[in-house]
Amino acid sequence: ARGKNDQYGFPWQPHKFYWRILTPFLSGIVALSTYLLIQADFFPLEVKNKESAKLAFSLCFILGYFSDLVLSRLAAWAESVIPNKLIRKIMVDREIGITIYAFNKIKEIKLGYENYTDKYDLLKKVLLYIKNLNNFQDPVSIDLNNFNRVVVNLAR
Hints:
By secondary structure, the chain is of the alpha+beta class. About 40% of the residues lie in helices and about 15% in strands. A five-stranded mixed sheet has the order 1-2-3-4-5, with helices on one face.
């Protein structure tokens, strides 16, 4: 959802159209199926007045609300800057800190020490900026050791 403050720092992506449309339906399916399993005594829960419409509505609303949160977290995880399958190696050095070897084109991403959450957000912005430039060479390495600056080494 893009509003005044862009949630993930990414522009609207057309390939995620169906995900955005189907999320409420998926939440409803999760809520209804869980309610039906509770009503069929599948879970070890004891619920009074199982046939009550108020109970059915309230349980489905609560389950649907939380399943929507779970589905949105899974979507955010799927939009990760560095997907796990693209990480080739993670090196930890006493003097240099953490270095991630990922992607095919970028050889290394140097994170150094501390502020990993902020550096991850900064890496998102840098990769988005590089992606939006048309005539930008492929980076060989991205150095985020110092949080106040970013060093991008380009392919030769």
